[in-house]
Amino acid sequence: MAIQNFITPLHTRAQRDYVARVVEHDKAACATIAKQWGAEYWDGPRQYGYGGYRYDGRWLPVAQRMAAHYGLTPESRVLDVGCGKGHLLYEFTRAVPGIAVAGLDLSPYALKHAKPELTPHLTLGNATALPYADHSFDLVFSLTTLHNLYAPQLDQALREIQRVGRQHKLIVVESYRNEREKANLLYWQLTCESFFTPEEWQWWFDRCGYDGDAEFIYFE
Length: 220
Description:
By secondary structure, the chain is an alpha/beta fold. The protein has one domain (8-12, 56-217): Rossmann fold (3-Layer(aba) Sandwich), CATH 3.40.50.150. The protein is built from ten helices and six strands; from the N terminus they run αααααβαβαββαβααβ. Helix 7 links the parallel strand 2 and strand 3 (122-124). Helix 5 packs across helix 6 (87-95) and helix 8 (151-164) crosses helix 10 (198-208). The longest helix has 14 residues, at 151-164. The radius of gyration is 17 Å and the shape is globular.
């Protein structure tokens, strides 16, 4: 497994007040609303999630870096597991014109509010049962999604990603390396169910036969 650094530059640009996250609002109530994956999570007040997740072009450099690293061409097929509104997928169509893209997410709201150009390529579904044939995609990636699963579902999702990928794979998850990062992660997260160190994530990857790349997001 290779450790990548595609998403971290975007993540570290944001300023976060970790303590305020747990004292300014009822964190448990906010998390309950966030896990409905509806309008409040995507476009409602910040305490429920993104605080407004709108297309702004920030993902184009990420798509360009990933396309170059994995050698993607117009003949390639790419799948985003947990695509949300599909902003990164859309940028792949700009970075590599002609590339075939597909996205899956369990949020009807997110898919409804995706860019119209992507609508024919998006599917409502769950990472635990991907509706695609074996070895269908040249690149399968999942960004900040799998840590939202409980252990049995995480096992299934990792095996599914391995199954449908025929070449490159990338999983990006939130993680921690020390007690400070662990505390910050617990303060900030709203939807995580799996809290693991990189070494523990590697255990999961080995267990499930996942042989792709990984990137770990830390809350320093």
